[in-house]
């Protein structure tokens, strides 16, 4: 019966319109190559956010091109253009930061929260090379800008509760601002028990607890010069990962920066920001709470990054020039200790990341050249020098077992370039772009030592001798709109040379008990990834509108095997009703059957699904206080399902009632 209801509603919605992404805050402008997801609690409204206290993961997953890989109820890994984190450049306000987990249980997005950020900028392909090299694109988690607004003291309180998992959230923000000085501090706390999948099926080891604290301060030296300092402390404990054989007892990050800003409306130099930053991450995997394990293990990891950037923007006649000179130094170290069940046997120790030091320096240049009132061309280039050094002698000796000619240092030169043509008329917009990019292998791909992947049940060994991965890309966007109707088509194609992926070496024995074997990282000659999305919306009246999206993705390698983690046919449809102080929305989202799955890389088929969500919002003004109330129900029909991006087919959340309340005091 549920499937019939979902099918009927899907037909109704698709008959109305076929596809526009519903952005978390604003409806997507399909004319832009980059997407902006606004999440700052300072700009709360009664209709723009489904849940004001959503996690960063929830916000990101609303984007067409982003899918979150779920290994549990916390710290989902973002993918962009069907590419995972190795091929992306994920930064926090332009700062490089690297996870400390060999199993990717701590993506960069897990170390910030909605209270820290103003917006997230999502750039596809080489449009995302401003802060570093990538293949698939970039995600920049952007902090609020300076707030010298003489508003005095301001505060807000956020409270949230969800029935599924007994999930509780609380937050507090205090802000003080004058014309010369501002100080903003905030904190947020989240705690969840095990959640239930559809049909009241408890998902064991899916609990977590987290708190996040941040402080931002600034001082205006003059009308044009100011200093800003930021500190973020994030700590999560007792994190269960039901899709993995291990949990996490601690994921902790300290992120800090100091920047100088110059802004002017008189000079051709419009802005100049220079930032120094440091961040450190500690991540500890353990299986002590699992009832039955073949051999108990502790797997701590550490990542420290020192960096800088200097960003300059110049406007001269028809040119808008952007420059970014940046660099960083990272230390990544991870180890494993195995404790046999027989206490008479000695424990076993090895480095899984043998203290890898990565140094990088590079220059990015972009020119937005205006041809006339309706045409422009964006062109960008990035050049960089990349070095890896193995600091632990044990790591060199271990990897020499597989690569006899290994040296402890490896230098690489990286380049990227992109150009986009834009035509913008009153009722339509067209853009076409080409790009070329390179990336170095990640720490795991280059230097990982017997890293277990539960997705395909193989141990992995890095390969420091691999060539740079290279990508050629093309993208096109077309958008047409009238007063009430919008339709947009966007598509991209990536041809990736030296596509890095694991290949079975039958001569090697696995380290992990029960593993199928060992894979060495190597490279396919090439791989191709294609996607296309159709987005539409129709405004029936000032209060009533419909928007929806439908997308298709495809990926294959030169070995004629489908690539792993390629999104199947997807759709989203939403009907909204909005007034000044009230809103309601009914949403249908789902995927088609994943028939083109990659059994060669450990995938299996996931069936189609569709889920219904309903949300409401109210906003009240009580003298100097604004009250924002958001409430609703997710997965109304309590559908039991998993998607292609759910690690080892872990089931997603069943029916969930929620309420979020925000009080803003001026």
The rough form would be described as: globular
Number of strands: 33
How would a textbook summarize the main sheet?
22 strands, antiparallel, barrel
- As a whole number of angstroms, the C-alpha radius of gyration is 25 Å
Count of runs of 4 or more consecutive helical residues:
4
Kindly report the average pLDDT value.
Answer: 90
Structural classification: mainly beta
Low-confidence stretches: 1-32
Helix content: under 10%
- Approximate strand percentage: over 45%
Q: How far is the N terminus from the C terminus? A: 50 Å
Task: Provide structural commentary.
The protein has 666 residues and is mainly beta. The chain is built from 4 helices and 33 strands. It has a 22-stranded antiparallel barrel. It has a 5-stranded mixed beta sheet with strand order 1-6-7-4-5, with no helix packed on it. It is globular.
């Amino acid at each position: 019966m549920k499937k019939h209801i979902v099918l009927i509603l899907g037909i109704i919605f698709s008959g109305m319109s076929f596809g526009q992404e519903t952005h978390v805050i604003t409806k997507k402008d399909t004319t832009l190559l980059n997407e902006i997801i606004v999440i700052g609690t300072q700009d709360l409204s009664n209709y723009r956010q489904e849940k004001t206290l959503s996690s960063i993961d929830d916000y990101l997953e609303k984007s067409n091109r982003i899918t979150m890989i779920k290994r549990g109820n916390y710290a989902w890994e973002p993918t962009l253009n069907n590419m995972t984190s190795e091929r992306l450049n994920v930064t926090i306000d332009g700062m490089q930061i690297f996870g400390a987990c060999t199993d990717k249980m701590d993506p960069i997005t897990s170390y910030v929260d909605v209270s820290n950020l103003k917006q997230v900028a999502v750039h596809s392909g080489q449009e995302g090379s401003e802060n570093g090299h990538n293949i698939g694109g970039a995600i920049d988690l952007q902090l609020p800008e300076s707030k010298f607004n003489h508003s005095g003291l301001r505060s807000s309180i956020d409270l949230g509760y969800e029935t599924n998992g007994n999930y509780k959230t609380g937050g507090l923000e205090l802000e003080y601002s004058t014309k010369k000085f501002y100080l903003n501090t905030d904190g947020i706390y989240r705690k969840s028990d095990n959640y239930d999948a559809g049909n009241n099926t408890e998902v064991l080891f899916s609990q977590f607890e987290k708190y996040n604290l941040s402080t931002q301060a600034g001082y205006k030296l003059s009308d044009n010069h100011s200093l800003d300092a930021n500190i973020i402390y994030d700590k999560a404990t007792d994190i269960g990962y039901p899709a993995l054989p291990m949990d996490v007892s601690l994921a902790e990050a300290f992120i800090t920066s100091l920047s100088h800003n110059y802004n002017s409306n008189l000079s051709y130099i419009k802005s100049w920001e220079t930032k120094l930053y440091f961040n450190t991450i500690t991540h500890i995997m353990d299986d002590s709470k699992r009832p039955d394990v073949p051999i108990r293990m502790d797997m701590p990891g550490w990542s420290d990054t020192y960096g800088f950037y200097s960003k300059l923007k110049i406007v001269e006649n028809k040119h808008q020039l952007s420059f970014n000179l940046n660099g960083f130094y990272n230390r990544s170290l991870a180890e494993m200790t195995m404790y046999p069940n027989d206490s008479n046997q000695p424990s076993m120790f090895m480095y899984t990341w043998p203290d890898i030091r990565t140094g990088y320096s590079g220059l990015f240049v972009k020119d937005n050249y205006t041809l006339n009132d309706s045409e422009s061309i964006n062109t960008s280039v990035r050049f960089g020098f990349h070095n890896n050094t193995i600091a632990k002698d044990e790591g060199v000796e271990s990897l020499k077992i597989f690569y006899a000619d290994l040296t402890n240092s490896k230098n690489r030169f990286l380049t990227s370039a992109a150009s986009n043509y834009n035509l913008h008329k009153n009722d339509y917009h067209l853009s076409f772009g080409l790009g070329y990019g390179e990336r170095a292998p990640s720490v795991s791909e280059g230097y990982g030592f017997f890293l277990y992947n539960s997705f395909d049940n193989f141990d992995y060994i890095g390969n420091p001798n691999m060539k740079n991965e290279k990508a050629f890309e093309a993208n096109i966007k077309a958008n047409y709109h009238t007063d009430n109707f919008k339709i947009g088509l966007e598509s991209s194609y990536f041809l990736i040379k030296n596509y890095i992926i694991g290949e079975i070496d039958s001569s090697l024995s696995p380290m992990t008990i029960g593993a199928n074997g060992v894979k060495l990282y190597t490279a396919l000659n090439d791989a191709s990834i294609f996607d296309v999305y159709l987005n539409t919306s129709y405004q029936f009246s000032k209060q009533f509108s419909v928007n929806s999206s439908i997308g298709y993705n495809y990926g294959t390698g030169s070995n004629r095997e489908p690539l792993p983690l390629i999104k199947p046919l997807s759709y989203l449809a939403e009907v909204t009703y909005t007034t000044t102080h009230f809103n309601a929305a009914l949403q249908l989202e789902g995927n088609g059957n994943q028939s083109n799955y990659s059994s060669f890389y450990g995938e299996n088929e996931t069936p189609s699904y569709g889920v219904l969500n309903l949300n409401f919002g109210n906003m009240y003004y009580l003298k100097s206080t604004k009250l924002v109330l958001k409430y609703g129900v997710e997965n109304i029909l309590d559908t039991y399902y998993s998607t292609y991006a759910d690690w080892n087919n872990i089931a997603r959340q069943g029916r969930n009632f929620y309420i979020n309340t925000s009080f803003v005091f001026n």
